[in-house]
Design a protein that fits this description.
single chain, mainly alpha
Length: about 300
Amino acid sequence: MNDQKKAYLQIHLCVFLWGFTAILGKLITLRELPLVWLRVLITCLSLLFFPKVIKNLKILSPKNIFQMGLIGCVVCLHWLCFYGSIKYSNVSVTLSCLSTASLMTALIEPIFLKKQIKKYQIFLGLMIIPGIYIIFYFTKIYMIGMILGLLAALLSSIFTTLNKSIVMSTKVDSMSITFVELGSGLLFLTLLIPFYLRIFPETTLIPSTSDLFYLLILSLVCTVLPYNLSLKSLRHISAFASTFVVNLEPVYGIIMAIIIFKENKELNSGFYLGSLLIFMAIFLYPILYKRFEKPSMI
């Protein structure tokens, strides 16, 4: 198996696990900030059990550490918006909004990585807009959740593109990058807590036994493993291709939400019509790639 095929298998496994994070976000009763803070804390502590993580930090330049730290803050903001969207709407609405990250990446990646914008990428991204409009029109009661979901999509495209630049410019292993990014994100979230508690003073910071169990699964199985695999895959596929595969996350997540939470009873045909338009764009990507791209890293 060549590196590119292996990278696609890695990113697909990530997508399945990330789809399950939305289910766990619904099951966990904590608000978004304590949820994300505990997720990042547990993840960082678990990475300390890998000796090479700390060892490899010595070869990072201050510039690399600063860049990774900024990316970590963006990642944590993404998670805040993502879980906030779930709390204010539901899993299905959140994941459908998140799939718009492909449009964001088609516009952002060429700017950050100084690449030529591909017309078919813009076309696929534009296909998503009518789908989002239809979802907005038919699910207005979830307006706040949808706005947070779209912000999560924007932040996702930004940190995916920035991570692409990092992994291509440094030889440090992905686990060390993860530790620096999430460690910085943890510090950032800690600084946010006092301001958050002023806005939401009723927020509970201590997890229940069931919340702690779900947080351990979320942090160890659905964060450490997929986050590292996604960074490895970015060495062999583009940020846009990665984001398009990640758009399968709503497919897995919505199916699981229907089975576990019966969310199909909360949503109407308009939501599924809008989602269908989004998913059509997702599956058109490999077809248009074969037609317009040369056989190189995508």
